Amino acid sequence: MSDIPSPCVAVCQIDRASGHCLGCWRTIEEISGWPRFDGERRLQIIAELHDRRGAVAPRPRRKNRRRAGTATSAE
């Protein structure tokens, strides 16, 4: 079971308040220990990631500057 892939999404930025990576939601200890963890520990971490994401308020969506229904090409 050690073939469980890392949840890394290459957005490696640690949130100072929570201590979690903003890409994969793991802690520094979990990221650095991943290669040494057995399958059971890896599955435990993955199961916790969903709850960690849900604990953080979703970021507001960016507003699209385009208006719906406007022509994009010149006539």
Give the SSE map.
Elements: H1 28-33, H2 39-55
How would you sum up this structure in a few lines?
This protein has helices spanning 28-33, 39-55. The protein has 75 residues and is mainly alpha-helical.
Could you describe the 3D structure shown?
Helix content is 31%, strand content 0%. The longest helix is centred in the middle third of the chain and has 17 residues, at 39-55. The mean pLDDT is 82. It contains 2 helices and no strands. The chain has helices at 28-33, 39-55. It starts with 27 loop residues before the first helix and ends in a 20-residue tail after the last helix. It is mostly helical.
The profile of the biggest β sheet is: none
Task: Determine the oligomeric state from the structure.
Answer: single chain
Order of helices and strands: HH
**How far do the termini sit from each other?**
60 Å
Low-confidence parts: none
User: Rg to the nearest angstrom?
Assistant: 19 Å
Instruction: Give the helix proportion (percent range).
Output: 25-40%
Task: Give the amount of beta strand, in percent.
Answer: under 5%
- Alpha plus pi helix count: 2
Structural class determined from secondary elements: mainly alpha
How many beta-strand elements? 0
What is the overall silhouette? Answer: elongated
Taking all residues together, what is the mean pLDDT? Answer: 82
